Amino acid sequence: MQNESMLNLPNMHRQPLGFFPTPLIELTRLSKTLDGPKIYMKRDDNTGLALGGNKTRKLEFIIGDALAQGADTIVTAGAAQSNHCRQTAAAAASLGLECHLVLGGQEPEHVQGNLLLDKIFGCHIHWAGSNRKGEDIPNIVAQLKEEGRNPYVVPYGGSSELGAFAFVEAFKELESQRQNINVSFTHIVFASSSGGTQAGLMLGNKIFNSPYQIVGINIDKGETDKVPFDQYIVSLANSTAKLMGETHRFSATDLVLNSDYIGEGYGVIGSLENKAIAMTAQTEGILLDPVYTGRAMGGLLDMIRTGKIKKTDSVLFWHTGGAPALFAYSNDLEVAQSGSQSV
Ligand SMILES: *Cc1c(COP(=O)(O)O)cnc(C)c1O
Q1: What's residue 133's pLDDT?
Q2: Do 22 and 96 belong to one domain?
Q3: Per residue in 109-165, pLDDT tens?
Q4: Are residues 194 and 98 in the same domain?
Q5: Res 90: pLDDT
Q6: Dmax of the chain from CA atoms?
Q7: pLDDT over 70 at 4, yes or no
Q8: DSSP E strands, the chain
Q9: How many domains in the chain?
Q10: 277 found inside a domain
Q11: What backbone torsions phi and psi does residue 211 show, to the nearest 5 degrees?
Q12: Choosing from 31, 82, 159, 210, which is the catalytic residue?
């Protein structure tokens, strides 16, 4: 394990947008309640940009690249409750860039959660119906160019090589915090959905010669660019290594992507998510979100309960943000129906 001088990573254009390092804390009451392993949490829900989240890290490098290219307009896509789109809208506003969001579905009757925040940030919203992964972007970009603008497309979920590189940097940040408090981990567990977080953490784990199991909890059964998600993550990790001048290459067997907790699909909230949200809130006073971190924590709780993660292990749960979506999903949260739910 690297411990004296931290490796130097290559310099990329970086536009500061958030507050780093994010805190690393121990969840002692949750561990005790579960009679389980030590559980630590990396608080990327506190990245600071417009209620925070993991996309802030990616956007520092992606928007840095956009500015270096002289862009005046940012275009990206996501779901109506996309945390990525909300953080992109805030980043664009903070830099005086025009922002266009291409959102799946139709304008809902009640504007809530992330969508409400998108509107507060003054971005242009294009409703894309069933084209939920940015299929309409080329048309919108062509139109913007015709209007004389210089648009820059931020990929779905910010999961380009630059977005993944941000999570190599994040891994470095974690390692320096971990060494300061002199703890170690066996697993890093987090929600995986467009792949950049996982590709970056895998690569960081390799570059810093760390022994952790990098366990992505799969959130969405879909494909990205028509490539199965597991292959997509491995190839993104490899193209990011290449961008960094690293010679290491991953194969499919290096990936740990757990697809046991997808349930009824993306954004369908069940008892797994409800229990994880209530338990984390009521033991630690920490908010998870219904779509990503609620599902990932539900997976972690299940892996502890079934002995896949043992009491002697030491787990880092990477909190990737998302709590603004709680307000948009209140109808699916059991606490909203029953008054309260005790753990
Ligand atoms: C985007 C997102 C993720 C998934 O990160 P990827 O890098 O897209 O896999 C997890 N949690 C939250 C809250 C997110 O917004």
Answers
A1: 84
A2: no
A3: 999 999 999 999 999 999 999 988 889 999 999 999 999 999 999 999 999 999 999
A4: no
A5: 98
A6: 61
A7: no
A8: 24-26, 38-43, 73-78, 98-103, 124-127, 151-153, 187-192, 213-218, 256-258, 314-319
A9: 2
A10: yes
A11: -100, 15
A12: 82
The residue to which tokens 């991953």 are assigned: 250
195 shares a domain with 321: yes
Ligand 1 pocket member 84 (CB < 6 A): yes
Confidence of residue 21 (pLDDT cuts 50, 70, 90): very high
Ligand 1 atom with the smallest distance to the CA of 325 is 13
Name the token pair of 192: 């995986």
Counting ligand 1 atoms within 8 A of each CB, the residue from 87, 197, 317 with the most, and so the one to mutate, is 197
Kindly report the protein residue whose alpha carbon is nearest to atom 8 of ligand 1.
194
CA of 7 to the centre of ligand 1 (A): 26
Query: Which domain range does residue 140 map to?
Result: 55-158
* Tokens standing for residue 189: 């567990």
* 25 token code pair: 């804390």
Peptide bond before residue 290 is cis, with ω within 30 degrees of 0: no
Tell me if 192 CB under 6 Å of ligand 1.
yes
Looking at the structure, tell me whether residues 131 and 165 fall in a common domain: no
Domain boundary (158, 190, 210) is at 158
Distance separating alpha carbons of residues 27 and 10, to the nearest angstrom: 34
β-sheet with 124-127: strand ranges across: 124-127, 98-103, 73-78, 151-153
Active site residue 340: no
124 lies in the same domain as 234: no
Does the Cβ of 193 fall within 6 Å of ligand 1? Answer: yes
User: Does 208 share its domain with 65?
Assistant: no
CATH of the domain at 295: 3.40.50.1100
Output the average pLDDT for the chain.
95
Residue 28 sits in the same domain as residue 104: no
Would 343 be classed as within a structural domain? no
**pLDDT, position 33:** 97
Residue 20 domain flag: yes
The dihedral region occupied by 70, where left means phi > 0, alpha psi between -120 and 50, and beta the remainder, is: left
Cβ-count burial 203-238 (b if 16+ within 10 Å, e if not): bbbbbbebebebbbbbbbeeebeeeebbebbbbbbb
Assess whether 84 and 201 both reside in one domain: no
Q: State the pLDDT at residue 1.
A: 45
